[in-house]
Design goal:
The complex is a heterotetramer, with two copies of chain A and two copies of chain B. By secondary structure, chain A is of the alpha/beta class. Chain A is 21% helix and 21% strand. Chain A contains seven helices and 15 strands. In chain A, the strands form four sheets. An eight-stranded mixed beta sheet of chain A has the order 2-1-5-10-12-13-14-15, with helices on one face. In chain A, strands 7-6-11 form a three-stranded mixed beta sheet, with no helix packed on it. In chain A, strands 3-4 form a two-stranded antiparallel ribbon. The radius of gyration of chain A is 17 Å and the shape is globular. By secondary structure, chain B is an alpha/beta fold. Chain B has a single domain, classed as Glutaconate Coenzyme A-transferase. Chain B is built from ten helices and 13 strands. In chain B, helix 3 crosses helix 4. The longest helix of chain B is centred in the last third of the chain and has 13 residues. The two termini of chain B are 28 Å apart. The chains are: A alpha/beta, B alpha/beta.
Chain lengths: 257, 271, 257, 271
């Protein structure tokens, strides 16, 4: 049995998407993205810029709070930065990465946080997509899905809240939103990206102990499986120690109960 | 400058009318103006159009209590405590009208009003079904470059309600933590009601000009309401009360549970 | 001989245009408007809101500085208010009055601070109209002219920097700017307003010791002279004492040397 | 965070290029980045497009010294010391291109760039000849209400130059007085160079989050330059040097007088 949880593994996978000097926005109810930002800053990307929903830049929290817009996330920040100003930065092309949760994600990386069923008479009304319909159109996003199953990974989302590659290929350009797009999808089973031509979702690596069949069975569309599929690199000892120290209450596990 | 100290009851009854557009401060369960929200529920205000970005218990309670006609929002959720069930139920039955947004489009609609403009352009939004179904968003071309942009219709609040840290009796307000959009909402509104943890001396305002975040010209009523954000957090004063939010999240699983919560924690209680 | 200067008289005339609770913007190089704001606040309009180019609201300066955006004008202010935010307020219709200087003002209250002669090849390039082309379109303005002569008060300005009533009558409405307009013109000789129908400039009162002929001769167009023309009420003792106390260096006299 | 301490000479030579759009901080003769202006003159930068609202000696000096191709402005004046004669002369001969604005239209062009937008709408302007002759302004209709508005084309500065009170070595900046549009200009620009009265410890920034007015992400270079606004004022540190401005105002009455001033006070002097 691994000495890390799937939450910890996913946090590290998200962290690896952050490069040094990247400007990253971490949103509300984002337990894994906040871990990812703090991990990246503490290890491989010390000059990443962490902007958060508590409206600050580069905080140094002693402990991760449950509400990811909570006051503890202001601690030792270098400045307040209202979210509307961060969005201005994004519109200038100066925000590098966001992390995105979703109830559904489809083959082309479109995400749904609005409705299951028809929009006007929904079967299930979801909470709404937060920043996604704005930011997904203009920048890179990494999507995280804590429960990889065929209800979450679907052929076509019921409603496009956050723009992925729409109908694939050059559809984004055609819609007037040439920049950015979803880069990776990190789930509790694997990591996926998007095939450059068709923009269809493609397996990149499978988490340790997960079988390819399990991934396929839990995906609601035909996933591109390249000849070579890696095993996801697990968190190392330092990363685990860091997470457990900065998150003693287990905020990172919130989505896995 | 005019003195603007009111009680919670006076301010809500004097300055909030049925049918008003009400912008609500705070984000998630942080610095939400919960005492004002509860007083609105107690006074049985009706047909409100509530406006906010990422909202939680504040919106859910107003919706559940039947105060709301329309919701302009980007997200309504109780974060780790799950779904805002009143919001979900009434959205599914069509009892409330939804004006769904992205965070920045709802912020921009407030910002347009704050700038005294009927609309503002915005990047992004195109290609999203949020854009496609919205009556508040449309496509325009930049008159100089020809590039396609979203246009966001202004939302001018009749009233903004916020909770802040300190104010003097004239309504010079200090927010001492995350600003959220509270300042924009106060700029945009016809009237702004603020509850504060502390009333401070006017001389203190004059001696520290740089600490005033919202000057008196934007404020209609100041209410001294310690713990006015509870069970939401108020930076530097208290963190959110997770037990209370959890109790609420459990209660709203059924309309009956919600009604019982309202009776116990709102209607038969004063802030 | 009067015991006050014409600057002091004009300052008081401007002050009288400020009503209690009015929100008034005082701009750069505005020695008389700053006196007017401080006079109004100290006497008849204690609840007026004084917003200035030092980007503050309701300052209590000990002494008027030479630069009307100078640091002394921040003293004891209740808040900083960047000018762009004041302009937002004006666009909301929540700013009540501005004072406006001009090199030329014409019969319909249009003001010129841009050029004498043709725009592309000017005989004289003037400093520019500051806020006027924006604010004069959306709110009330009071114009001050320290030297009333036929070069300053002209039949038609060479260039409309700040919108008055354009060609008079309903021309403002026709141009899409129905709100506001110039309310008064205060000069070193007299006070004028605008006749409600034609929007042509009309004499209101003549300063003590000035003859009607002197006004007429120094005006470059036919001024409407009503049957009854008052004599301008001079500053009283308290107003004079206040001005001399708050402005010991004579900033108010700057335009009269 | 990256350390960003430079000398005046290094910063101007590294980050300002001939032909750049340069937004200049301050208003009138208050917190103008005069040391940077003088260094630009010394380094003989050419063809700059300078952008500001109500400007004085800074613009006049850059224009007189031949650094400028185009001026976006609402006013250029030396206040009580009279006309900005270099501006006047070169405008009259057509040696500089004028992009004349109202205060709020030039601010709005910067604000559009700060918001990452190619244009912004604006009320007012209609009916003015400033609007009629401008290539930066046009009329649009609100796509929701149909009302006529002005549209203002964005001006994105290649470089913004400002003078502020304090910064740490990473470029977390504190403005401790009138903000003017310095903050908008820093938000809007590709690069921002700031001279400061004092370099403060990074821990001081971390311990007083609320005092940072421009965070490091907007800043390219920090220069420790006490009296860097002289002869303009710097709130809380010094008032404007009226004698020096008067000397300048006298000197610029003739091109020869200006050249003599430049030689004596700028070219043969270091800041």
């Amino acid at each position: 049995m691994a000495d890390y949880t799937v939450a910890e593994l996913m946090a590290v996978c998200l962290a690896r998407e952050i490069k040094d000097r990247d400007r990253v926005l971490q949103g509300l109810y984002s337990p894994l993205p906040i871990m990812a930002c703090l991990l990246a800053k503490n290890f491989h990307a010390p000059n990443m810029v962490h902007i958060n929903t508590a409206d600050v830049i580069d905080p140094e929290p002693t402990e991760v709070p449950f509400s990811t817009a909570g006051p503890a996330l202001q601690e030792r920040a270098v400045a307040y930065l209202p979210l509307w100003q961060t969005f201005d930065l994004a519109q200038q092309g100066k925000l590098d990465l966001i992390f995105l949760g979703a109830a559904q994600v489809d083959k082309y990386g479109n995400t749904n946080l609005s409705v299951i069923g028809p929009y006007e008479k929904p079967k299930v009304r979801l909470p709404g997509g937060a920043a996604s319909a704005h930011l997904c159109a203009i920048m890179d996003a990494v999507i995280w899905i804590p429960r990889h199953n065929a209800r979450a990974l679907v052929e076509k989302v019921d409603f496009i809240t956050g723009q992925g590659y729409l109908t694939g290929g050059k559809a984004r350009e055609g819609a007037g939103i040439p920049k950015g797009g979803p880069r990776k999808v990190v789930t509790n089973l694997c990591i996926m990206d998007f095939e450059p031509e068709t923009k269809a979702m493609r397996l990149v690596s499978i988490h340790p102990g997960v079988a390819l069949e399990e991934v396929k069975e839990n995906t609601g569309f035909e996933l591109i499986v390249p000849d070579k599929v890696e095993t996801t690199e697990p968190p190392n000892k330092e990363e685990l120690e860091f997470m457990r120290q900065i998150d003693p209450k287990g905020v990172r596990e919130l989505e896995f109960h | 400058m005019k003195e603007k100290l009111y009680t919670l009851q006076e301010a809500v009854s004097s300055f909030i009318n049925d049918g008003d557009v009400v912008a609500v401060g705070g984000v998630g369960r942080n610095r939400s103006p919960m005492a004002l929200v509860r007083e609105i529920v107690r006074q049985g205000k009706k047909d409100l159009h509530i406006v906010g970005r990422e909202k939680g218990m504040d919106f859910d309670m107003l919706i559940g209590a039947g105060c709301v006609r329309k919701v302009s929002f980007a997200l309504v959720s109780l974060e780790e405590f799950g779904l805002a069930m009143n919001f979900r139920r009434k959205a599914q039955t069509g009892e409330i009208e939804l004006d769904e947004h992205a965070c920045n489009s709802v912020i921009t609609s407030i910002r347009a009003a704050a700038m005294g403009l009927p609309f503002l352009p915005l990047r992004g939004m195109l290609g999203s079904d949020v854009f496609r179904v919205s009556k508040s968003l449309t496509e325009i071309k930049c008159p100089f470059t020809g590039e396609p942009l979203a246009a966001v219709k202004a939302i001018k609040p009749d009233v903004t309600i916020i909770h802040a840290h300190q104010a003097d009796k004239f309504g010079n307000v200090r927010i001492q933590g995350s600003p959220f959009e509270d300042i924009l909402k106060a700029w945009a509104a016809e009237k702004t009601i603020v509850t504060v943890e502390e009333i401070i001396d006017h001389e203190e305002i004059r001696n520290n000009t740089h600490l005033t975040t919202i000057p008196h010209i934007y404020i209609t009523a100041v209410i001294h309401q310690p713990k006015g954000a509870w069970p939401a957090s108020c930076d530097r004063y208290y963190d959110s009360d997770r037990e209370e939010v959890k109790t609420y999240a459990q209660a709203i699983k059924t309309p009956e549970g919600f009604q019982e919560y309202l009776d116990r924690r709102v209607l038969n209680r004063r802030d």
